[in-house]
Records
---
Amino acid sequence: MDFSFLDQLWLARIPLLKGLGVSVSISLLSIVVGTGLGVFVGLALVYGFRPVKWIVRGYTDFIRGTPVLVLVLASYYVLSTIGIDLGPFQAGVLALAVFCSSHVGELVRGALQSIPKGQTEAAKAIGLTFAQTFTYVLGPQALRQALPAWVNTAAEMVKASTLLSIIGVSELLLRTQELISRTFMSLEFYFFAGFLYFVINYGIERFGRYVERKTAVPS
């Protein structure tokens, strides 16, 4: 890493920071929306009526079996053919959130099914509604079990956000490629971009550890 790279890095600080901000925004939105949808997907898989289970099961299997790049292209190009015009940013968030929801749904399903049924029956016996049972009995236990795998899913969403450059989203990777085309410093800028992605994922991992400590059962 020589001074010429440092000079170019300083000159390119604004585009890189903007690209980093877009990557963080896309990742955060897709994780939050995808997690929210995934909770409902998991609940439907466990407690839904049989036709609902079939539909949701088909949704999760189809989405999980589809490459993220195909979902991104479909959200941007296919939806426009049926009158739903989304910008690159919105289409990217939609694709990643849908992909995230299918994985989170499976995590929630597995976590809920691992909880003994006697706890649900006990909650019914003391008069708790389903919403209260999930909030106070099932949800906290499912959270503790699904959290480690959720952290991995969130990290995958950050990495998948790099695919949005193909539809013109000015995220970190696209900004980096634009700088490389001008400076021809591919190794240096790709290494620096990789470092920034590592920082984002490390932050997610630390957040997961923090929530894990807060939700741990005292021994």
---
Amino acid sequence: MKSSITLFAGLFVVFFAVLSCKKEDINPSPINSILGEYDVKCCSYDIGKRMKVIPKNDSVVDIRILSDYPNNLIKCNRVYKDLTIIPKRSPWLVDSVFFYIYNSSHQQVGDIRTPKAGTYFQLWGGLDSLSNTIEFISATKRKD
């Protein structure tokens, strides 16, 4: 009887020790590396503004260009909703991963390149949900 209590107590301790360990995601989202903040490099009056790529699920994101960074982190100048990000490794460029950006109509509207030098974002056909116009944006990921 005493050995069964010792065995149960040992299993109990091992079980809770495993539960308390920090868990690693064995299958992380393929778009985790491109999420975050970008500096807008082009075009029109968006130059120098901050852009955020915000995840909605494992492949769909919203993109927001903040109108008054750093004073107002909520007010947006442009918003691009429900863009699907699909990763594709390029066989020609060994050090680069490409992500293609598609709109809700399954048309490619941009791409993201991630060579060793940084992450470069281009959106050439995104429909801004605030002004209902198609815009071109070029941005570089911040290295904070």
---
Amino acid sequence: MIRTAVATDVPVIHAMIRELAEYEKAPHEAVATEEQLRDALFGADPAVFGLIAEDVAEDGTTGEPVGFALWFRNFSTWRGTHGIYLEDLYVRPQARGGGHGKALLLELARIAVERGYSRVEWSVLDWNQPSIDFYKSIGAVPMDEWTVYRLTDEALAAAGRR
């Protein structure tokens, strides 16, 4: 059901990123191209990694991808170890409730444990209660005392010129 993404998955990952942006009410913000994804995931120096969730038919064959997770390594100065930052996790609406999201998260946890990483973390929109409930059901805890900040576009360019 869960496998490592390969280069031929880039078009479907790109399509699901667009679907996720629609779901999160921000399609105008999803400007990444297939070429950018291909380079980030499979270029000379990949810094992003992907997992694909597929339906499994009764005969054991796999079907079309129904979900994905994109992640990268981060580092905790306090723990002195790497961790996983889950950038995106998405399961197509018709496949939700089938265990794909949980399987993707459990595979990330398995990777973290296998590699000696100390944590898996991600962000979720405050209004996305179904996802919040799901994350809590597997033991994830909110980091309520932290606020995420971001520099992009003009603010990033201005800061970079200082």
---
Amino acid sequence: MKLINTLQDEHALIDQVLGSLRIYVEGLIDGTADPEDGRRFTAFFTEFAGHFHHDREERVFFDALVTEAELPGDRGPVYAVVREHAEMAGWLGEMVPLLEQGPQCEDDRVRLRALATRYSHALWRHIDAENSVLYPEGVERLLRCGIRELPDRPMSEAEAAAREGAAALLVRYPPLEDAALTRGEGCFMCRAYGETCEGLEAEWWTELEWDEFFIR
């Protein structure tokens, strides 16, 4: 599906800019980064990652999974991912004044570093879970229902500007790879597993799929 391919391409960019954000935060804390770039980072994650990327996931892809594939929206993978979107948006909201105005004291610096780490770790693992489980499994179920394509929309002016600004940020702040974070594929790597979601098999599999599994 073209929309899903586009969303995965967007994941690759968001993944990189998260690494740049972490480098930027360290520079902002030690006084070597340009304070104006804080607004560019917040614009990217608010406008592009949030208002554009997450909005289309929820309003188009997830809506189709619930209405067309008749998958639950009040529990399981869709519920868990939407809940994570809201949770991460809250953390981003806490970071915005610290990124745009700069940390004013040691407590601010400690808080900004902690928020940036929590936000990046959560969004990296969120991306992994969507790429390895929700996207492929969701597409398969839509195809079974005869849904081969999903609608998309163009970026707004603000979303496009935020996307454009990311290129310069990636050059100024080459992304890091956080060795402290374990990344991987599958439900077991998802933050929601065992808390707000019991895993793909428990939440989505039909009796036929379980029968085929045991036969194999």
